[in-house]
Amino acid sequence: MSLQRDDGIVLRAQKLGEADRIITILTRERGRLRLVAKGVRRTTSKFGARLEPFAHVDFQTFERSCPPRPGSLAMITQAETIAPYGSSVVPDYARYTAGTAMLETAERLTEEDEPALQHYLLLLGGLRALTAGEHAPGLVLDAYILRSLAIAGYAPSFRDCAGCGNEPAEGVPWRFFSLPAGGVVCPTCKPGGSAVPQQATMELLGALLAGEWASADASEPRHRREASGLVAAYLQWHLERGLRSLRLVER
Q1: Residue 28 dihedral angles phi and psi, to the nearest 5°
Q2: Bridge partner list, 7
Q3: Low-confidence ranges of the chain (pLDDT < 50)
Q4: How many angstroms separate the CA atoms of 250 and 209, rounded?
Q5: In whole angstroms, what is the distance from residue 152 CA to residue 198 CA?
Q6: Which of 160, 137, 155, 150 is nearest to 245 (CA)?
Q7: What is the pTM of this model?
């Protein structure tokens, strides 16, 4: 038998039987876990409300066999709330849809039982930014997706050519954007079907990836919409299918 303690962010909760749930959590130490929470759907449950999506929790798990058998799920036996981000996110539609897309992105870009500290810290920071309300939810979401992709090894280039690495003249980004190439490309490397975003859109994308919030917050709505479309397309290219939650996000 094995008892372990960790803290993490609840990504998803699925019904199991009449009273239980399978909880998907992105943890600090052990990466993404799927755990069984017994009886949490009963009104008498002591910690069921603490295991809702967006919650940052400290929890204890119980494993009957050590090492665990393949396919077996550990049980959550204790859970204490560290930060109830859901209380600020869920009542607001824009925050809720952006936050849901962030949780889905975290689940898709991490592997089960594989440590993912950078993804965990990024998601934690993203939820804090979302609840603080200092930036538009759509900007927080796009910045989160770009940085998540960078952590996963798919960092896009928004200045130098993604094909040959050449720098643009006078510091102005190359005009063409290619999903297969991994970002902006010069005229020589430009493949067929490349997009031609506005220069302000490329500057916004670079600012979101770099965390230059003063520049991002000053951007115009039309450039935000174009940037969001490129971010969604770039994410879908690497995931091979899009996020279901992105369709609900206000743009």
Answers
A1: -70, -45
A2: 58
A3: 70
A4: 20
A5: 27
A6: 137
A7: 0.91
